[in-house]
Every structure is written in structure tokens, then in C-alpha cells.
Design goal:
Order of helices and strands: EEEEEEEEE
Number of helices: 0
Strand content: over 45%
CATH architecture: Beta Barrel
Distance between the termini: 12 Å
Largest sheet: 5 strands, antiparallel
CATH class: Mainly Beta
Shape: elongated
Number of strands: 9
Strand order of the largest sheet: 4-3-2-1-9
Length: 91
């Protein structure tokens, strides 16, 4: 976990899915195709689930981002319809 925050990016069927943690303003955001679909405040470290959806070829897909806090670290995952999406940490 970086001091200023973290930014993870994944793709699903050509759609960009991002999970952005900002430690300056204490927020966690889920973005799909560059648009914010869910966010929550992170004043104190705690487990968070964000949900959104995307449409691809006329079908709605559920996007779920989870942050599970462990002592001094966290595990960040994004799932599309229950399947984990590979994420790349952006710089």
C-alpha cells in the first residue's frame, strides 16, 4: 500500500475497471470505463465492498470490488459476475 494511495486497473471484454484508493482524502472509488460508479469514505481502515454494473453486448454484468483489511495491509480484489479479474497496479 503506497502512502498516497493505490490504483489498480483491469479489463473485462474491452471495458476498463479501476479501483482507486486515495489516502489524502480517505476515499475508495470503483470506476468503470472512466466513470465513477461507487465510492465510500475510508476514514478508518475497515473492510469495504463496492458494487456497480456494466453492460456488454446487451447483457448486464455485476462488478464487485472488495477491500479486506489485514494488519498493516489490505487485499484488493475485483470480480465480474463472481469471477476474479486480474488487476495491474498503476503507477
Amino acid at each position: 500500500m503506497a502512502i498516497t494511495g493505490d490504483h489498480y486497473i483491469g479489463t473485462y471484454e474491452g471495458h476498463s475497471i479501476e479501483l482507486v484508493r486515495n489516502n489524502w482524502n480517505k476515499t475508495l472509488k470503483l470506476l468503470i470505463d472512466g466513470k465513477e460508479v461507487a465510492s465510500k469514505s475510508r476514514i478508518l481502515p475497515h473492510d469495504i465492498t463496492l458494487e456497480g454494473s456494466l453492460e456488454h453486448d446487451g447483457v448486464q454484468h455485476t462488478v464487485t470490488a472488495k477491500v479486506v483489511v489485514h494488519f498493516l495491509s489490505s487485499e484488493d480484489t475485483v470480480e465480474v459476475d463472481g469471477n476474479k479479474l486480474p488487476l495491474t497496479k498503476a503507477k
